[in-house]
Amino acid sequence: MGRVCALLALAMLVAGCGLAGTGATTAAQAESAAQQAAQAQAVQDQVRRQIDAAQEKAAEQRRAAEADGQ
Question: pTM of the entire structure?
Answer without folding.
Answer: 0.56
